[in-house]
Amino acid sequence: MSRLAYHYTIADRLIKILNSGYLKLCPERPEPREIRYVWLTVKDEWDKTAFYNCPDTLLDSVGRIRITVDLDCINPDKVHVADEVSNTIYNYDGLIKSAARVKVSSEDWIVVDEVIKLVSIVNIEVWNTKTKQWNKIKCLDWSNV
Question: CB 3.0 to 4.6 Å from 68: which of 19, 74, 96, 123, for a disulfide?
Fold first, then answer.
């Protein structure tokens, strides 16, 4: 069975991801001595640290997206629990405090220190605000991107 993790974003960023062919490393402009990572979580529910402090109504109106990643498709040397590499992340203590305010645990975070190619993605879903469920985007084929 595959080890899965989730990347949460919004619809307009999904288009950029598909066009680029990968999930990108963040932050775009790192601090000195900061390592850039792709951020994931093992939780299959929206991570409230994604778009922190953005109102739910706004997130729902722009389209919440959940991208499921198969960690077994990524070099295991590149996959880390965020707390293990906290000293390489700028203001990690501040991130932890912000996460605690929205009841998110950093123990659920996974970071990958290389771009995640679309071949590692097993599912892309959109949040249905009426049914409160994730729905697979069936007409989307990223395997040939």
Answer: 123
| Residue whose tokens read 């469920």 | 133
What beta strand segments (E) does 3-91 contain?
4-10, 22-23, 38-41, 64-70, 79-81
pLDDT (tens digit per residue) in 101-132: 999 999 999 999 999 999 999 999 999 999 99
Q: Where are the alpha helices (DSSP H) in 1-145?
A: 11-20, 56-62, 92-101
| Cα–Cα distance for residue pair 101/103, rounded to 1 Å | 6
- For 49-84, the pLDDT digits (tens) are 999 889 999 999 999 999 999 999 999 999 999 999
Q: Nearest Cα to 2, choosing from 47, 69, 79, 62?
A: 69
